[in-house]
Amino acid sequence: MHNNLLYRKIFITAALTFFCLGYLDGLGIGTVLAAFTMGKVVGIIGTYTDKFFYFETYKTLKKTDKEIK
After folding, report:
1. Burial of residue 53 (number of CB atoms within 10 Å: 0-12, 13-18, 19+)
2. What's the number of domains the chain is made of?
3. What are the C-alpha distances in Å from 2 to residues 5, 32, 34, 40, 67?
4. Which of 1, 17, 37, 48 is the most exposed place for a label (fewest CB within 10 A)?
5. What counts of helices (H) and strands (E) characterise the chain?
6. pLDDT of 5-38, one tens digit each?
7. CA angle in degrees (0–180, nearest 5) for 35-32-22
8. Could you tell me if 23 and 14 are in contact, meaning their C-beta atoms sit under 8 angstroms apart?
Protein backbone atom coordinates (compact mmCIF):
# COMPACT_ATOMS: atom_id res chain seq x y z
CA MET A 1 0.00 0.00 0.00
CA HIS A 2 2.83 2.38 0.84
CA ASN A 3 4.51 1.87 -2.55
CA ASN A 4 1.23 2.57 -4.33
CA LEU A 5 1.05 5.98 -2.66
CA LEU A 6 4.67 6.67 -3.60
CA TYR A 7 4.02 5.81 -7.25
CA ARG A 8 0.97 8.07 -7.21
CA LYS A 9 3.01 10.99 -5.88
CA ILE A 10 5.68 10.50 -8.53
CA PHE A 11 3.02 10.35 -11.24
CA ILE A 12 1.31 13.51 -9.95
CA THR A 13 4.68 15.33 -9.87
CA ALA A 14 5.47 14.24 -13.42
CA ALA A 15 1.99 15.18 -14.66
CA LEU A 16 2.08 18.63 -13.06
CA THR A 17 5.58 19.25 -14.42
CA PHE A 18 4.48 18.22 -17.91
CA PHE A 19 1.27 20.26 -17.90
CA CYS A 20 2.86 23.40 -16.43
CA LEU A 21 6.05 23.38 -18.50
CA GLY A 22 4.98 21.34 -21.50
CA TYR A 23 7.91 18.95 -21.06
CA LEU A 24 9.56 16.92 -18.30
CA ASP A 25 12.55 19.11 -17.60
CA GLY A 26 14.25 18.54 -14.26
CA LEU A 27 12.48 15.28 -13.50
CA GLY A 28 15.30 12.84 -14.00
CA ILE A 29 16.55 9.65 -12.46
CA GLY A 30 17.95 11.54 -9.48
CA THR A 31 14.53 12.91 -8.60
CA VAL A 32 12.94 9.49 -8.83
CA LEU A 33 15.69 7.84 -6.75
CA ALA A 34 15.43 10.57 -4.14
CA ALA A 35 11.68 10.01 -3.90
CA PHE A 36 12.21 6.30 -3.29
CA THR A 37 15.04 6.59 -0.76
CA MET A 38 14.66 9.85 1.13
CA GLY A 39 11.96 8.75 3.58
CA LYS A 40 13.88 5.66 4.65
CA VAL A 41 17.14 7.58 5.09
CA VAL A 42 15.45 10.27 7.19
CA GLY A 43 13.91 7.54 9.37
CA ILE A 44 17.29 5.88 9.93
CA ILE A 45 18.97 9.18 10.80
CA GLY A 46 16.08 10.07 13.13
CA THR A 47 16.41 6.78 14.99
CA TYR A 48 20.17 7.29 15.32
CA THR A 49 19.71 10.87 16.55
CA ASP A 50 17.14 9.78 19.15
CA LYS A 51 19.82 7.66 20.81
CA PHE A 52 21.80 10.79 21.70
CA PHE A 53 19.14 13.49 22.15
CA TYR A 54 15.78 13.74 23.86
CA PHE A 55 13.26 15.97 22.11
CA GLU A 56 10.18 17.52 23.69
CA THR A 57 7.55 19.86 22.36
CA TYR A 58 6.92 23.33 23.69
CA LYS A 59 3.60 22.23 25.18
CA THR A 60 5.27 19.45 27.16
CA LEU A 61 7.94 21.78 28.47
CA LYS A 62 5.34 24.44 29.36
CA LYS A 63 3.24 21.87 31.23
CA THR A 64 6.30 20.65 33.16
CA ASP A 65 7.22 24.24 34.02
CA LYS A 66 3.74 24.85 35.51
CA GLU A 67 3.95 21.64 37.55
CA ILE A 68 7.27 22.79 39.05
CA LYS A 69 5.87 26.15 40.19
Report:
1. exposed
2. 1
3. 5, 16, 16, 12, 41
4. 1
5. 3, 0
6. 767 877 887 788 778 777 766 667 787 777 778 8
7. 120
8. no
